Amino acid sequence: MTHAVLVILALMFSAQAPQTPRTAAPIDLTGNWVSVVTEDWRWRMLTPPKGDYTSMPLNAEGRRVADTWDPGKAASDSCKAYGAAGLMRMPGRIRITWQNDSSLKIETDAGVQTRLLSFDKSVKPAAARTWQGHSLAEWEVAGGRGGGRGQQRAGALKVMTTNLRAGYLRKNGIPYSEDAVVTEYYDRLMSSGMELLTVITVVEDPRYLTQPFITSTHFKREPDGSKWSPAPCE
Length: 234
Hints:
- By secondary structure, the chain is mainly β.
- The chain is built from three helices and 13 strands, in the order αβααββββββββββββ.
- The chain has one domain.
- The strands form three sheets. The chain has a nine-stranded mixed β-barrel with strand order 1-2-3-5-6-7-10-11-12.
């Protein structure tokens, strides 16, 4: 068998080999990213005062629970604001890598949290609820989708997270319950010469919210991890 035939057979075999979520990725989300805080500054950069529910779709029970928040105990409750429903709104840096061919890992220096986004739907939730819950991911490709002037979008990552411990949507005790479902859409785009990561987060919680709470969070790519500065939530 000639060398040329062997090369052709090898190429045919590689073309037929099943793709993993890693090789099938329509966009590369890996790297080091830093928050770009251009909106909601007073709620993201500072701990809002007790009773500040502005823009939050809380029902009566949600407001009642928020009103029980004790600023004097904020330090001991601080990790409640770093669960998956509120984590991406925290100002700081994130690092995205592939844990393996079917799991993306997101690490945060704010609160020192680690999220695993699994493309394997056979993976079952842990027995105990956690701050980061159970996240299932899938690629959503939208051919020809445009992001507006100066922007390019080729695809997005959809993540659905359940099995969460109850936590805070904001540091001043705005609650989400164990019933909350968090759906996120991760995308990468170019805008004004900057490479950005956008995360649209939809929190649905029948216990405390009257409607989905939707936010759009932006991160800018950094060249390396030299500015990585972990600070635990407790």
